[in-house]
Specification:
Keywords: Membrane, Transmembrane, Transmembrane helix. The protein is mainly alpha-helical. The chain has one domain. The chain is 61% helix and 4% strand. The chain is built from two helices and two strands. The chain has a two-stranded antiparallel sheet with strand order 1-2. The protein is rod-shaped.
Length: 89
C-alpha cells in the first residue's frame, strides 16, 4: 500500500512538472512569435517610409525579393505586406 502511494505521488509530481514546463515553453514560443511579428512590422514600416524618397540610395538600386530571387525596380515593390516578400535589415 505504501509503495503504491509513493508511485502515485511520484507520477503526480512528474506530471505537474511536465505541465508547468509545457506552459513555460508555450509562453516562450508565444513571446518569440510576438517579437518576430514586431520586428517584421518595424521593417515593413521602415521600408514604406523610405519608398517615397527618390534620393535614397538604397531604393535607387534594384531591390531583390525573396520570391525566386527575381529582381524588381523600386516602383514595382508593392508587395511589402504579402507573405512572400519580407525584408529584414
Amino acid at each position: 500500500m505504501r509503495i503504491a502511494a509513493i508511485v502515485i505521488i511520484r507520477k503526480s509530481i512528474i506530471n505537474l512538472i511536465y505541465d508547468k514546463l509545457e506552459i513555460l515553453v508555450g509562453n516562450l514560443n508565444t513571446l518569440c512569435g510576438i517579437y518576430v511579428f514586431i520586428i517584421e512590422i518595424y521593417n515593413k514600416l521602415y521600408h514604406l517610409m523610405h519608398l517615397g524618397r527618390k534620393s535614397d540610395a538604397a531604393f535607387r538600386r534594384r531591390i531583390q525579393t525573396n520570391v525566386g530571387n527575381e529582381r524588381v525596380d523600386q516602383d514595382r515593390v508593392i508587395k511589402l505586406f504579402s507573405a512572400d516578400s519580407i525584408y529584414i535589415i
